[in-house]
Amino acid sequence: MLPIKIIFLLNLTYMNDPSFFLEGLISNNETVVKNIYEGSFRKVLSFIANNNGQKEDAEDIFQKALLQLVVRYKKERFVINTSFEAYLFTVCKNLWRRELNKSKKEVTNLTIVELKDDDEDIARAIVEQKRWELFTECLDKISDNCRVILKLFFEKVSYAKIVEKLHYNSETVARQRVFKCKNKLKELIRKDVRYRELTNI
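RESULT FIELD:
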């Protein structure tokens, strides 16, 4: 029998592997599920509470995120390239943003609200998550300068601030740089084999 110390170290190694958590979710392993909640829920709760949500919203989003991961992993054994905790947090953030956008549409289009069933909603969320992953992977592939300026642009930082932060000569130069970098990013995304699949859904 292996010494307790070695067993503990082996367990730590497994727990650093995202597939350990995905497999645990699929098999409904109580210990793994409990570990996921203890390790990730508080951060998700904090994010949602700071973005117009309540504890009940955080609980719903967390459940939806776990269900989304289970459904997707059963269908395709995808690989997580970050820590499981970081990946789950991103899924929760995207789901909450989606929820907020959906709420806005429902408020502005009260007569055209369509209630989607859970299966269709999960399928749409998985596609949106895949699109987000493609976008972030391509963003990581462009030059450091382009990545910095596009992140500022996507965060809605004004051109005046971009000029100040990146020491450009004028707002015109900053706009041209954003335009060129956006085109580079679009080109990378369109070249990816997943692009056609994700745009035809």
